[in-house]
Structure formats: structure tokens, C-alpha cells
Amino acid sequence: MRLDLILRVAAKLILPFMLLFAVYVQFHGDYGAGGGFQAGTIAGAGVILYALVFGLAAAQRIVPLALVETLVPLGVFIYAAVGVAGWLTGGNYLEYNHLAHDTVHGQEWGVFLVELGVFVTVSATMVAIFYAFTGRRRSR
Amino acid sequence: MLAVTTVAVVRVRNLFAVAVLTGIYSFLMATVLLVLDAPDVALTEAAVGAGIGTVLIVGALYLTKTDEARPVHGILLPLVVAAGTAAVLLFGVSDTPPFGDPGNPIHVLGPDYLARSVPETGIPNVVSSVLASYRGFDTLGETVVIFTAGIAVLMLLKRSPRRRRVSPPGAGDPNSPEDEA
After folding, report:
1. Is A76 close to B147, i.e. CB distance below 8 A?
2. What ranges in chain A are assigned the alpha helix state H?
3. ipTM of this model?
4. How many independent structural domains does chain A possess?
């Protein structure tokens, strides 16, 4: 697999666009199709593609397992922290109205941060599950 | 085509072919969802079902045999289980509101969300605003579900290195005593 020239070149060509598309889906989710779940899966798939073509070790040099396992709970933490921020700014849990100077911007900020939390958890979970599957035979 | 793919998935005994066929099935399903004007769900289905799902199935096949095992039971037991499950599901469906009734909650609440989304949240994509703002608590639950699934898979599959175990906080250390594999 490591010597497969066409695969490697094609993967190198396609990877930047995959990651860019993930970012686009993430930040454009307010206006078009998409959001944290979709963008997280696409970003996770980018890392998985890299691991498939270039090998697990190369992928884990770029995205270490420790980082992935930190990001999985971090996304949930971001999401829950946005809810607590709603409390602290004088609203209910997960109420975004007071996060910014007016209600609409508060809502946009809340949705943005919540989607960010979803993105982090989803992408990290995808990569973590993939690592768990593929790392099994190697270390035996 | 969906039906043909489904029958093929059931009939073919080579699991590698089944993995590819499930990927095709997911792509067809994404197309159906796109036709149904649900691009968000279609995007998810294409990315998760066709992309990552197929990769994970192939990754699991790498660890096991690639041919489906012969069934150990006769045809009767699976038939009874399937019929029982179908009966339970039908019983559950019988309590849902009638299909297409204008008084259904989805038809009453939908226009409300459509009217409120842009003035209240400034987000034109109503799917996003409902998902993240109006139903934010549900989405928090979904995120926790994904988190839990990831932790569970890691606990099951990961052969934890004794020393440098980097377990996520809050998970406790349930996998320290019984990590023999």
C-alpha cells in the first residue's frame, strides 16, 4: 500500500479539498446544508483516508492518539460549557440570548459554539474508533 | 435499486462484497434523501454510511474471516424473532399520528419554526437553528451519545498500554483490571 503511487498522489490531491470542504460545511452550516455532525464526519474521513494510504503510523504522527482521545470529551465539554455560559449570562441552560450584545447575535454565537463542540467530538470519535480498529492487529 | 442492493446484501456470502454493497446502499439512500429535500441528512448518510461505515466494516473484516459463517440455527428461530420484532414495531407505530394529517405536530410546529428562525436567530438554515438552538438540549444528548459510543468502542477494542494510558477524564478506570487480551 505504501508504494502505490497513484493512490498516494490522488490522496494528496484530494485531502486539502476534503479538509477545506469540512471547514466549509462547518461554517456554512448556518446558511446551507451541513453543520457539526456532517463536517466532523468529513474531517474524520480525511484523517482516515490519510491513514489508509500512508499507513497508521504516519497518520498518528500528525494526529496522535492522545490528542484524539483528548478531543472526544473536549467537544462535549465545549457544548456543555456553552450551556453553563447561558446560565452565567443570566438565562436558562443552553439559552444563547445573552451571549452577545443582542439576542440575534447571541443566538448566532451560541449555535456556532455548539456546532464547534459537535464537530470536535464527532471527528475525534470517528478517528478514535478507526484507530482502535486498525491498531489492533499491528500491535499483536 | 435499493431493493436490489438489499437483496444482494442478504444473499451474497462473501463479506467483502457485502461491505461494498452496504456502501452502495448508503449512497443510494443519500440520493433518496436528497430527492426528499433533506440535504443535511443526505450529507450525513453519504459521509457516515458510505464513507466511514464502509471503512470500519472493511477494517473489521481485516481482523476476521471474509466469508459468512453457515447459520447454526434452522429457519424457524430467526423467523420467530423477526416476526416478534416486527409485531413490537408495528404496535409502536400504531400510536403515531395518522400520516399526512394537517393536525400533526410536525405541520403545526413547522411553520412556527420557519417563521421564527430568521428574526430570532438570524440563521437562514432552519435545520441548523432548530438543531442547535430550539432543540439544543436534544443535540447535547446526541453529542453525549457519540461520545459514549466512542468511549465504549475504545474500552472494548483498545489494548491499553500499561504505563502511558491516556484515558479520557470522567471515564474512571474500568479497563485496568481486565485487560488481558
Report:
1. yes
2. 5-27, 36-54, 56-62, 65-88, 103-138
3. 0.76
4. 1
